[in-house]
Amino acid sequence: MDRFRMIFQYFQSNSESVMNGICGLLALASVKMYTSFDFSCPCLPQYNMAYGLGIMFVPPVILFLCGLILNRQSLLMLEEWRRPPGRRKKDLAVIRYLCSSIMQRAMVAPVVWIVVTLLDGKCLICAFSGSMDPEKFVGFANVSTVQVQQLLAKVPCKDDDELMRNSTSRKAVSRYLRCWSQALGWSILLVLIIAAFLARWLRPCFNQATLLQARHWSNYIDMEQKIFEETCCEHSRLFAHKCILHFFESMQQEIQLHRFSLPREGEGAEGEEDLLRGITDQDQVNKLLKRWYYEKPPLDVS
Amino acid sequence: MDKFRMIFQFFQSNQESFMNGICGIMALASTQMYSAFDFNCPCLPHYNLAYGLGILLVPPFILFLLGFVLNNNISMLAEEWRRPQGQRGKDPAVLRYMFCSMAQRAMIAPAVWLSVTLLDGKCITCAFCTSVPVETLGNASHPHLSQGEIQRVLARIPCKEIYNGQQLIANEVAVRYLRCISQALGWCFVLLMTALAFLVRSIRPCFSQAAFLKSRYWSHYIDIERKLFDETCAEHARSFAKVCIQQFFEGMSTDLVAAHCHLPRKAPADAGEAAEKLLGITNQGTMNMALKSWHRCKPPLNLHPPAFPTGNGQAGEGEPLTHPSAPRRETAAYYSWV
């Protein structure tokens, strides 16, 4: 009874809680990745925007793909989608349910990365410091256009230039951009949380019965796949056992034929003799091992 | 009985203690978020108020909604609210209880954020630095400064390194003043929240305690019922899958027997169990065909009692699933002895 319950709990809890756990781990990993990444803005007019936006958008794509790869349900969904109908009709609601569940979980880590990036501000400062209007900031008013671009591009790099280090205009630009970056980050987070709240609150109002069915059959497909794999594993274990037994028997027969000797009918040592299967000296063992390598038995135990 | 009680206790304690745990974790997370967040006042006249109040009020709202989103009971509440009446009446008191209990737990993390923010003082300093009373605290008679200029100078109070209004009003004086107000607000807020919580807890038993106990019981019941239903469905799906796969393999081996037109050589009695576990698949070609068939042509979701090869196929209707294999085995053994 206990074993049954343990196995059942493993099957039941495995898909949902493992996937939620992986989702949370990826989110934590993305925060850790960001804090350990050494952001280093190039501070050159043409490169700043590419670098800043690249760091903001490329890792989320990578994290999204990782989220899809690590999720067991993606393979399940693809298989269910592409299989021929055969004797079992395909239910599109199940496939849609699996797809939305996979997407939701995979989107958590990228969103965490983007929000953390925006709240920190370095990426946006690097990307958009060159696009600032120099009129707004006191220190850049009387400088030529080309030079102002260069100066604005150097804003993210504090230690680069002696002149720039303590410039109040540099700090003003930096502060301004950071303020916008943080406001954008908090706004995105607010919008997403409101969307998540509405989705959870309003979902039972629409097609609850269909949703329950889709959820049940998606769990069923998952469990069926696991049990099928388990059955195949058990089958292959027994198959292998039989195959090897046949191999040893055939070796034993061959040895008896060559030796023309009758097997010794020892009384007490019968159990041990059975295990030894008539192979009792070094030459025989070597022959058996060589035969096992050069001439594996056919996959047929009928 | 013991198993039932253990399961019941697990479910009962799980919901409450799990939600309390989530609540505590979120409160800690909100303090951690605040200390990790790099507060960066823009020090510009119209932006200060927006930024300061934004940081003061938007994250608590986010944390409040997050408290609802992470609570599994929200979909249960919505489901109970929207379900058709059917044969079970709906009790609005139960719904109210569930909602109140969720809202109370969700309010803790925002309250922690607000307290920490007010006690720290940076937000209020940033938001209200342009409203500092220059007449009382500073030198209002300082000439040559228009109102706009004064606003711009005051807006730079939070940014010490660029502050240039030392003659107008000393930076430390203004910061201390604003921080003092902020901390006073913070402590008042904490006192108010705690007093409210105390009143709610101590006065509630004076009002309709019996109705409260009833609502609490039935809300727990709905939660446990839903969990048990999910558990039963999962158990059913597992048994269904097992039988489906077993019938799939039996169907495969029957097809093979029909195709090859010979009876399979039956293993001796002592190896019967192993042979049965081999599910009639004894060579590579057969296994490959089984795997291909599993993908190309999945069995229908329809568990059936298998048809008998003998004349009295109708007798198989009422019999349970385990019987059918027995007569077949006996027949095969008889023929092989002959």
UniProtKB/TrEMBL annotation, chain A:
Keywords: Ion channel, Ion transport, Membrane, Transmembrane, Transmembrane helix, Transport. InterPro entries: CALHM. GO terms for cellular component: plasma membrane. It comes from Anthoscopus minutus. It is a multi-pass membrane protein. Belongs to the CALHM family. GO terms for molecular function: monoatomic cation channel activity. It is found in: Membrane. It comes from the Eukaryota. GO terms for biological process: ATP export. This is CAHM3 protein. Pfam families: Ca_hom_mod (PF14798). The chain crosses the membrane at residues 49-71, 92-115, 183-202.
From TrEMBL, chain B:
Keywords: Ion channel, Ion transport, Membrane, Transmembrane, Transmembrane helix, Transport. Pfam families: Ca_hom_mod. GO terms for molecular function: monoatomic cation channel activity. GO terms for cellular component: plasma membrane. It is found in: Membrane. GO terms for biological process: ATP export. Residues 305-326 are annotated as: Disordered. The chain crosses the membrane at residues 21-37, 49-70, 184-203. InterPro entries: CALHM (IPR029569). It is a multi-pass membrane protein. Belongs to the CALHM family. This is CAHM1 protein. It comes from Anthoscopus minutus (Southern penduline-tit). The gene is Calhm1.
